[in-house]
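Q: Dirigent protein, please. Structure only.
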Amino acid sequence: MKRTSVSTWFLIVCLSLVAVQSQYNSKSRPYDPKAEKVTDLHFFLHESLDGQNPTAVVIAQANITTNNSTVPSRTLSAVDDPLRTGPEPSSEVIGNAQGLAVIAGVNSTVAVTYFDFGFTGGEFNGSSLSMFSRNQLTMTEREMSVVGGTGEFRMARGFAIINPYLINATNVILEFNVTVVHY
Ligand SMILES: *[C@@H]1O[C@H](CO)[C@@H](O)[C@H](O)[C@H]1NC(C)=O
Ligand SMILES: *[C@@H]1O[C@H](CO)[C@@H](O)[C@H](O)[C@H]1NC(C)=O
Ligand SMILES: *[C@@H]1O[C@H](CO)[C@@H](O)[C@H](O)[C@H]1NC(C)=O
Ligand SMILES: *[C@@H]1O[C@H](CO)[C@@H](O)[C@H](O)[C@H]1NC(C)=O
Ligand SMILES: *[C@@H]1O[C@H](CO)[C@@H](O)[C@H](O)[C@H]1NC(C)=O
Ligand SMILES: *[C@@H]1O[C@H](CO)[C@@H](O)[C@H](O)[C@H]1NC(C)=O
Ligand SMILES: *[C@@H]1O[C@H](CO)[C@@H](O)[C@H](O)[C@H]1NC(C)=O
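A: Structure for Dirigent protein:
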């Protein structure tokens, strides 16, 4: 009799453990935004479209006739661009931007970009920023929104002002001034 009651208790304990494990949420607690910080970042994205090691390549394209545009519409590109401290190709690499750029609309001068900016040096080594926005490629000042981040940039939000430093048929160099609010 006593043995049975011990095993019954054991079963009850096991069942209550299962019940605790099936709970997937914590108790909600107050969020204190006073602990947030703001950081400004300044770097240059270097994109090579040609040559032996292009950093952006077309991976899919619609089979439609487009007007004689150098940037065809309905095109998807895979991008892995180094981020450098300066506009010179020899300046220090501090990270890379990886993601997709899609010219989705009929207007081939607008690109939507989905990039993760990962940093490989300095204070933010190992951290990354997620940026997403559409941009008119012909505009001299563009903007991207920071929609999140990892590592030091957890819970990040902010914006990047992008200044086209150089754009020609084979190379693109963009200056980024990013303002990030994060933990
Ligand atoms: C592209 O579309 C045209 C017309 O529909 C077709 O003749 C051609 O075979 C297509 N090319 C490819 C690579 O699918
Ligand atoms: C392509 O060019 C033709 C002729 O100039 C024009 O009518 C048409 O609107 C253009 N299409 C696009 C998508 O720009
Ligand atoms: C596209 O280029 C061809 C050859 O250069 C030219 O004949 C044609 O008029 C151009 N079309 C448009 C819409 O600019
Ligand atoms: C494409 O964008 C350019 C630049 O803003 C604009 O002049 C043109 O009218 C747009 N064309 C279409 C078809 O939306
Ligand atoms: C960045 O972090 C990685 C991984 O912890 C480390 O191997 C690397 O040496 C670091 N680079 C710099 C420049 O600090
Ligand atoms: C584009 O600019 C780069 C850097 O200044 C230069 O090396 C390259 O030759 C240029 N390409 C063209 C097609 O003008
Ligand atoms: C970006 O920041 C740099 C350095 O702080 C500054 O010299 C430059 O004028 C800024 N550019 C823009 C477009 O805000």
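A: Brief note, in case it's useful. The chain is about 10% helix and 50% strand.
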